[in-house]
Write a structure and sequence with these properties.
Blueprint (H helix, E strand, L loop, with lengths): L1 H9 L5 H8 L4 H8 L6 H46 L3 H4 L4 H42 L1 H48 L1 H6 L3 H50 L5 H30 L1 H16 L16 E8 L8 E8 L4 E5 L6 H8 L7 E6 L2 E2 L5 H5 L2 E4 L10 H6 L6 H13 L3 H6 L17 H15 L3 E5 L7 H14 L4 E5 L3 H4 L4 E6 L2 E6 L1 H7 L1 H9 L3
Helix pairs in contact: 1-4, 4-6, 6-7, 6-10, 6-11, 7-9, 7-10, 7-11, 9-10, 15-17, 17-18, 20-21
Length: 557
């Protein structure tokens, strides 16, 4: 653009026809400079050039600053939405999800979604700038610009085929990654079994087959990208050369105007490449976008209904009246359960596997909703109670202790601030869970890292930490879901002493198979085929219920 301007400035006398021939409709630049009171000299033109590019630099900085802020907003929003939607899912619906799919989408595919977002908006930005240069080219030489635009449009059909194949490969890549991630999780989870049985060699072949398929799809994307990169310039230059030949030989075009338009097209060419590169990057990551949207839809469709507004500041009583539950209406797991949890008593649920113990506990914890009957908390119907506030009053200790790869203090306090009040609560919870000896033996006391899944401590110590976490929370209902079944007899006895020391401080529900765990419970509920067949103290049931007596004699609980 400035070469003709400098040429015009170097002329001793300039007429309108000369300006029009050199600059076309862009002669307004000369008019604007002269009207501003400046003499049209090379120095003025070069100064004008510097001011324009200085302004451009400032605008580019503002653009980059704004772009970073917008991108940060988008990334935070999509991550928050994913995590919030997962946390808001109903437990019953969560069980239907594939763990590999969830983990792969929330960890790996989220980066593809972000990359797709960046590529999409880079494409839009390049398209706007492309349009600007095309308009300038049209202003310089309308016929030439139209012919090149038509040629460029026709070449786009070739690129559409590449984009379509790239998108298909990207979607396939994401789906295969879900399967691979699921298998990988299971390889880690069941490593001991796979290693001990030499099944890992066979399992490894299955993992490798998915790696091969994933990389094959990735290879396709790479080849399509290579075709696009290699063909782009030859196609565009071929179109431009063809149009120049037509313009000069057929339409008698002015060579000066053609080359001015060509300068704009040279700039436009850069943005044509950026548009195509951006769109190819978008389609390459489109698989992540597809699976992300699908998972978000599953999260949204599986949302837990929590319309209750009344807060459960404490849990004094829980009452089940004629409660039944079944995932399938024709096959009820619980049938007409009547139960009242009150007075900080200890309740034990016993029965054969499949009798409904865990399902009943899940209802009591508010994880699943009864299919029929009524469930009330402090005399208020479950649907009227804010479930989040209710669950804050519940402690849950499972067979496999939940230990996070962090310090002992953070595991018990659940990352509470390490202030004086929380330190005192920590010490009290640790004392009640009999953890003082463990803390003293650790190299950095409560600030010692416990390792992945608590690999640095024993099973009994893990369970004590789990108990201490719920005590730190200061709960009203404490649930032990077969919490001692994976422990040796000596450790089980120690944990049992923990449980005994907590009696009377809160409601306690025990699910257990071993006699030692439930012998001192205030009330034992014998479950059979989804029914509470009998209830009473240990001695009462030994005298009145043959099934319970048989279970004791066979040590089946």
């Amino acid at each position: 653009m400035f070469i003709p301007l400098i040429q015009v400035a170097g002329e001793e006398s300039v007429d309108d026809s000369q300006v029009s021939e050199s600059l076309g409709i862009l002669k307004f630049l000369v008019t604007g400079i002269t009207k501003a009171g400046f003499e049209l000299t090379p120095l003025v033109i070069l100064s004008f050039l510097f001011v324009i590019f200085l302004a451009k630099g400032l605008i580019k900085y503002l653009e980059g600053h704004y772009k970073v802020n917008v991108q940060m907003f988008f990334v935070k929003k999509i991550r928050y939405q994913m995590v919030d939607s997962l946390g808001n899912m109903a437990f019953r619906n969560f069980l239907k999800l594939d763990a590999g799919r969830v983990q792969n989408t929330l960890s790996g595919e989220i980066y593809k979604i972000v990359s797709a977002y960046v590529a999409y908006f880079n494409t839009l930005q390049s398209a706007v700038l492309l349009l600007v240069y095309l308009i300038l080219a049209l202003m310089a030489n309308f016929e030439f610009a139209i012919l090149v635009s038509i040629g460029g449009y026709l070449t786009n059909f070739i690129y559409k085929i590449i984009y379509r194949h790239t998108e298909t490969a990207s979607v396939n890549n994401s789906k295969l990654s879900h399967k691979y991630q699921s298998l990988l999780i299971q390889a880690v989870q069941y490593f001991k079994y796979l290693k001990a049985t030499s099944y890992f060699e066979t399992y490894k072949l299955k993992l490798r087959s998915y790696v091969d398929q994933i990389e094959e799809e990735q290879k396709k994307i790479g080849i399509f990208n290579a075709i696009l990169q290699a063909s782009r310039e030859p196609l565009v230059i071929g179109v431009v050369i063809l149009v120049i030949i037509v313009q000069i030989n057929v339409l008698d075009g002015n060579i000066a105007a053609i080359f001015l338009s060509l300068l704009f097209f040279y700039r436009a060419l850069n943005y044509i490449m950026l548009v195509q590169t951006g769109w190819q990057a978008f389609t390459s990551n489109l698989g992540g976008l597809h699976v992300g949207v699908e998972l978000l839809n599953d999260f949204e469709n599986g949302l837990e209904v929590n319309s209750g507004t009344q807060k459960a500041e404490s849990v004094r009583t829980i009452t089940l009246t004629d409660v039944s539950f079944g995932y399938n209406p024709q096959n009820a797991i619980l049938k007409g359960i009547n139960l009242t949890i009150e007075d900080n008593r200890t309740y034990a649920l016993v029965g054969r596997s499949g009798s409904g113990k865990t399902t009943l506990t899940n209802i009591l914890a508010g994880l699943i909703e009864p299919s029929s009957g009524t469930f009330s908390i402090n005399g208020i119907q479950r649907e009227d109670v804010d479930l989040a506030s209710f669950r804050k009053r519940i402690g849950y200790i499972t067979q496999e202790a939940v230990i996070f790869n962090d310090t002992l203090f953070n595991n018990i306090s659940f990352w509470a601030d390490q202030n004086l009040e929380n330190i005192e609560r920590f010490r009290k919870a640790a004392q009640l869970a009999h953890l003082e000896e463990l803390i003293e033996s650790l190299p950095e006391k409560e600030d010692t890292l416990l390792g992945d899944n608590g690999i640095l401590i024993s099973g009994g110590q893990k369970q004590r930490i789990s108990i201490a976490r719920e005590l730190f929370k200061e709960v009203d209902l404490l649930i032990f879901d077969e919490a001692t079944s994976a422990l040796d007899s000596e450790t089980e006895k120690s944990i049992q002493e923990n449980i005994e020391s907590l009696k009377g401080s809160c409601h306690i529900i025990l699910i257990a198979h071993r006699l030692s765990t439930v012998k001192n419970a205030d009330e034992i509920l014998v479950m059979n085929n989804g029914l509470i067949e009998a209830s009473g103290s240990f001695s009462e049931l030994m005298n009145s219920n043959p099934r319970f007596k048989t279970m004791v004699e066979l040590q089946e609980f």
